[in-house]
Amino acid sequence: MMSDNNEKKTASESNIVNLPSDTFINKRDMDKPLVLETRHLGIDFGGLTAVDEFNIGVGATEIMGLIGPNGAGKTTIFNLLTKVYQPTRGTILLCGKDTHGMTPAAVNEAGIARTFQNIRLFDKLTVEENVKIGLHNHINYSMASGIFRLPSYWKEEKKAHEKALELLDIFGMADQADVPADSLPYGAQRRLEIVRALATEPKILLLDEPAAGMNPSETDELMANIRKIRDEFGIAVMLIEHDMKLVMGICETIAVLNFGRIIAKGTPVEIQNNPQVIEAYLGSKKDE
Amino acid sequence: MAEEKMTKKKMSKASKNAFLNYGIVLAFFVIFQVLSSTGILSNSLKGQLIPVVSYMIMAVSLNLVVGISGELSLGHAGFMSIGAFTGVVVEAVILSNSPAAATLSKNLGLQILILVASIVAGAIIAGVAGVLIGIPVLRLNGDYLAIVTLAFGEIIKNLLYCLYIYIDDTGLHFSLDPTSLAGTTVLNGPMGATSIKKISIFAAGIVLLLVVLVIVQNLVNSRSGRAIMAIRDNRIAAEASGLHITKYKMMAFVTSSALAGAAGALYALNYSTIVPKKFDFNTSILILVFVVLGGIGNMTGALIAAAVLTVLPEMLRDFQDYRMLVYAIVLILVMLLTNNERVKVFLAGLFNKKKSKDDAKEVA
């Protein structure tokens, strides 16, 4: 089991290439455009520089990890990418297209979906309705056909219902479709957020601490599911996580953040052996 | 197979509530129609029937904003007012141009025609007012809508205080100068409209109420309604899921104000005289009380609260001195009871029992 894992790791790491732009991507994504690229991205809150010189590129089907100590600016970066905050500096390119001036809704339609560190579900809606909100922009009928229950309403709602159950089935949640979202257990709420994000048909999925509060067996299941999502949907995944077993287990490339700046980029093995990363996490040796 | 079953079950559950409300309205209609035709109903209560229906519509429409969209509107009477006076003007214009006006009281078809035209016009103008207010305010986050609608209600009232409308040979005239009044006066500033032909009919009001319920309930149970509720539950997550916030807030607010306008027209055409002061802040709060008392977001509750709280003061007329006291006590009791955990648990228990019985029946 153990050796099997190691074999996989070395196999995948030999597939990572470093592009001239100092971007690590998987060989299989070489001939596809980067799904997400940031250049000199930064934001100031008053006099505080929260994020600065954030440069990354994410391959079309890459699983990338974003790690760093508390307060390093990881969630701020997600908020910048999804336009919850407007960046002070720099550009974000989504499939080569500048997202400057877009609203969070427009960015989502363009292909970035996310989950939240502190779970944000539509509490009073059912599990299925939560997923249908994700599907919202793919359900095509007007307000009038909704009010007058025209044929397009029935057709599209039926389609959405089937699609929602199909997506919920990824996490084995289809039988809980009629349950109000706020009555789900914690782990299931996290999974529902992922399903809702997937329903928007993103090109890249941002997961903010997906394994927070999960036990080891749930985490293992989540890792398998993230891989499955990537393979089935052919999308990129970027995740913030403190659980190193998960990060080192599924991420193909990792960026380490400290005080708002990237201090290291590379494959999991490179990151684990990087002295700067060890210093950021454990503190430096002091000569006395 | 199992999936199919689930779909059916869920649909019946969602539409069950809606049909319950249609049933309540129809039962209300039948009971009061019978009571009034058999003469059991006192004249003062008979006069309350159309106002009750109007307030029911107001409660349902405000519930769309407060309960479904999660915004606070404190000027709903302002939209009612716009609908009311638009309706009055439309009625006066049609009657002044129609040769059949003299036989209006005998001509039910013409009455209904004018009523429908007035209600539609009232809804449209009130909807336009809703758009004008919504465009700037609904882009903002927080309590701004409450503040602006509060002011809006007062502005409409004061605007009507200095508005004079009359019809002469050359047509319809609007003026801010009371001395310019000539021909037939439609609206006489603070005195209000004083020569309305009463054309509202209880049955027509019930039909309007049913139409409003269909619109609101079907909207809530559709793609747009889902989006409106999602924005209420979590704005940030809704945006991150690709929903355009302002669009759906506008949809709820404008629909609500248009329906309030329709209710206003129905209400005004039930009286021979109506003054702008009728639709002041107190009326707005009264409608809000219907919604809060009925349970925010609960259409059935709003309907019942509107009916009971409109009729209750009338029923208590015999106890003139203690009327407001009893009214206040009823309000307080309902608030306490509906927020009491024990009562909630008790009610939930009742429902569950019923449910398990139903399930048992299904199995059998």
How would you summarize this macromolecular structure in one to three sentences?
The complex is a heterodimer of chains A (288) and B (364). Chain A has 288 residues and is of the alpha/beta class.
Q: From N to C, what is the helix and strand string of chain A?
A: HEEEEEHEEHEHHHHEHEHEEHH
Helix content of chain A: 25-40%
Mean of pLDDT of chain B? 87
Low-confidence stretches of chain B: 1-9, 360-364
- Estimated share of beta-strand residues of chain B: under 5%
Biggest sheet of chain A, open or closed, and with what strands and sense?
Answer: 6 strands, mixed
Classification by helices and strands of chain A: alpha/beta
CATH topology of chain B: ABC transporter involved in vitamin B12 uptake, BtuC
Q: What's the N-to-C terminus distance of chain B?
A: 20 Å
Number of helices of chain A: 11
CATH superfamily of the largest domain in chain A: P-loop containing nucleotide triphosphate hydrolases
Overall description:
The complex is a heterodimer of chains A (about 290) and B (about 375). With about 290 residues, chain A is α/β, with parallel strands linked by helices. Chain A has 2 domains: about 1-110 and about 200-290, P-loop containing nucleotide triphosphate hydrolases (Rossmann fold, 3-Layer(aba) Sandwich), CATH 3.40.50.300; about 120-200, P-loop containing nucleotide triphosphate hydrolases (Rossmann fold, 3-Layer(aba) Sandwich). Helices cover about 40% and strands about 25% of the residues of chain A. Chain A has 11 helices and 12 strands. Chain A has a 6-stranded mixed sheet, with helices on both faces. In chain A, strands 4-3-6-7 form a 4-stranded antiparallel sheet, covered by helices on one side. In chain A, helix 4 (about 125-135) packs across helix 6 and helix 4 (about 125-135) packs parallel to helix 7 (about 185-200). The termini of chain A are far apart. Chain B is mainly alpha-helical and about 375 residues long. Chain B has a single domain (about 1-364), classed as ABC transporter involved in vitamin B12 uptake, BtuC (Orthogonal Bundle). Chain B has helices at about 1-35, 45-70, 75-95, 110-135, 145-160, 200-220, 225-235, 235-240, 245-270, 280-295, 300-315, 325-340, 340-364; strands spanning about 165-170, 170-175, 185-190. Chain B has a 3-stranded antiparallel sheet, with helices on one face. In chain B, a hairpin with a 2-residue loop joins strand 1 and strand 2 (about 170-175). In chain B, helix 10 (about 280-295) crosses helix 11. The longest helix of chain B is centred in the first third of the chain and has 36 residues, at about 1-35. The two termini of chain B are about 20 Å apart. The model of chain B is unreliable at about 1-10 and about 360-364 (pLDDT under 50). The chains are: A alpha/beta (about 290), B mainly alpha (about 375). Chains A and B meet through helix 3, helix 4, helix 5 and helix 6 of A and helix 1, helix 6, helix 7 and helix 8 of B.
